[in-house]
From TrEMBL:
The lineage of its organism: Eukaryota, Metazoa, Ecdysozoa, Arthropoda, Hexapoda. Residues 2-164 form the Niemann-Pick C1 N-terminal domain. PANTHER family: NPC INTRACELLULAR CHOLESTEROL TRANSPORTER 1 (PTHR45727). GO terms for molecular function: cholesterol binding. The gene is Dwil\GK28224. It comes from Drosophila willistoni (Fruit fly). One of its GO terms (biological process) is intestinal cholesterol absorption. This is Niemann-Pick C1 N-terminal domain-containing protein. InterPro entries: NPC1_N.
């Protein structure tokens, strides 16, 4: 979840907001103060995909569900995708979103339409985000699970005239059913 927190901090507090954020609509409160009603965040598809992958298997022990079952709107985790997840995180109808945030995806982090898309560092779920913190466990991250040992090689089959020796011996056994 560190990547999600990093994302929120980055687009909220970054000194480089003008490079990737565009205020689409503003309003005025009853004191005449301006506020943001809609915002475009220019972001790379790579960043959205990596952030999604780092969170997609995280479970919520209290509910027995995956975190994305609770964080992808009408979509369960099994039908969620990076784009659906970020769209929900920016949807003004989501009770946790203060205004509309539209994520404008770019294929690369090169400048387009005067914007340099946000492409923050992401940490894969099987790596620790800091030296004092462990990586995600196997239950939350398949990449953290140990690999199964390789299948043992089967012994060479004994053949008699190209036929399996055990089949021939069973056929020749007078006590076989």
């Amino acid at each position: 979840m560190a990547n999600l927190v990093r994302h929120i901090c980055e687009f909220t507090c970054s000194g480089d907001q003008s490079q990737f954020a565009h205020v689409v609509a503003t309003g005025q409160n009853n004191k005449g103060e301006a506020y943001v009603k809609s915002l475009d965040i220019h972001i790379t598809a790579e960043y959205i995909n990596k952030t999604y992958l780092s969170c997609s298997q995280v479970s919520v022990p209290q509910t027995g569900q995956l975190a994305l079952d609770l964080m992808c709107g009408v979509y369960p985790a099994s039908r969620c995708s990076p784009t659906k997840w970020f769209n929900y995180m920016g949807d003004a109808n989501n009770p946790y979103v203060p205004f509309q945030i539209t994520y404008v995806q770019h294929k690369t982090n090169s400048s387009e339409n005067g914007f340099i898309p946000l492409n923050s560092k992401t940490t894969p779920c099987n790596e620790a985000v800091a030296s004092e913190l462990p990586a995600c466990s196997c239950s939350d991250c398949a990449s953290s699970c140990p690999w199964a040992p390789a299948e043992p090689k089967l012994p060479h089959q004994l053949k008699i005239c190209g036929l399996d020796a055990f089949t021939i011996s069973a056929a020749c056994d007078p006590f076989s059913p």
